[in-house]
Amino acid sequence: MKFRKSNPLKIAAVKAGFSPATGYRLGKDPGLPSQKREPRGRRRADPLAEVWEGEVVGMLQDAPGLRPVAIFDELLRRHPLLSPGMRRTLERRIRAWRSLNGAEREVMFRQEHPPGRMGLSDFTDTSDLGVSIAGELLAHRLYHFRLPFSGFEYANVVLGGESFIALAEGLQNALWLLGGAPEQHRSDSLSAAFRNLDGDDRIDLTRRYEAFCGHYGMTPTRNNAGVAHENGSIESSHGHLKKALADALLLRGSRDFDDLDGWRGFVDEVVGRHNARNLKRIDLERSALKVLPARKTADYEEVRVFVTSSSAFTLRKVFYTVPSRLIGHRLLARLYDDRLECFQGSTPLFTLRRGRAGPNGKHGHVVDYRHVIHSLRRKPMALLNLVYREQLFPRRPYAKAFEALLAKEGEKRACRAIVGLLALAHERACEGELALAIDAELEAGRLPNLKILSERFGPSISAAPTVIIHLPSLAAYDEIAVVRGEAA
Hints:
This protein has helices at about 10-15, 20-30, 35, 50-60, 70-80, 85-100, 165-180, 190-195, 200-215, 230-250, 260-275, 280-285, 375-380, 390, 395-410, 410-425, 430-445, 450-455, 475-485; strands at about 120-125, 130-135, 135, 140-145, 155-160, 185, 220, 255, 300-305, 310-315, 320, 330-335, 340-345, 345-355, 365.
């Protein structure tokens, strides 16, 4: 139109890059094509015309949290002739109505995290990964620590619940791996530890948590109960961590590990690869962290236990066997998430696997047959109705052998034979090899023979070396005495 002021329409159109026909059309009506379109009209009848204003809007106003699918089901119940295919139309209409007339929604405020200010802890369930140890499904969860600025992560396999011990052990390991401590530590994991405790225990646990954070110079903080998004900097990373572990397991081709240490090493490797990608930011944040104290603090709980005449003690509804020489003694047990370290005074004795009570309060058992086999050999019939008989067998072939012997040989012979096999496994240190031999006999349809197996795994007399001792003549001593006398 600027060229049109000083040129004929045809020349103005060419100068503007239009064809003459477009120039003549724009000369008659200078409006844009988008401004000339008429609003698109409805092509079919509105399926919600009869119910929208009279019923749907009323439901939305009376019950703002009502789901669209519930409204849809109610409309079909009231009006059977309505088309079932209108569900998506109803959902779009409700969404549009709520954007204009709905209630105000909660707003998430994104936070800025300066380096070295905050570290976050939480627990996440990993049962959906389907990890197994030696063929048995592993019931566990992960303790997860994260620095929101650099993205540094640490994960620890937890066999029990979300306890203070699991939190303290995982957090302490993370801080020493990182090489420093943040100003604040935020967690909501301790709420589960308070759930079934009385007031005194609750106060004590809070004191321990605050003392733990004070040892590292951190300010303990917690998000509001039931408000997960306040811990969002670590809640969202749970999903990323579990997806990374799931992908790594698929690439590995198997979800079964030989032992628990193998699975823990696998988790460390996956988390380590993630930290390697953020190494520059982690190094930057390390310079802003507080210096660690000279030593670690206690990340365990100490309990005094008494060893009964059963050569065992009971702790947290779990029965633990110990060497019989400790009967009548009081021991100090340090409880970790996965183990018990036992002391007599300040002398360390041994480490036991930590057990868990069964469902409905049923007692658990952690039994080592080596602790009681010497007494069981003198009283083999005690095995028949032993409370922890199933836990006494170190491997499945021993339990299968006892069942087969019990069915064919009777109670007395079965007890004597299986106790003899356990004694053989202990004395000759051949528990695994003997289990394979027993399993082979059962697969062949034969009962394990204690005499034959004792000869097979017993000491080989023919292999003992022959020692020949040559005694010197007594006259040689006289010659020695004479020589020494002449020399004198």
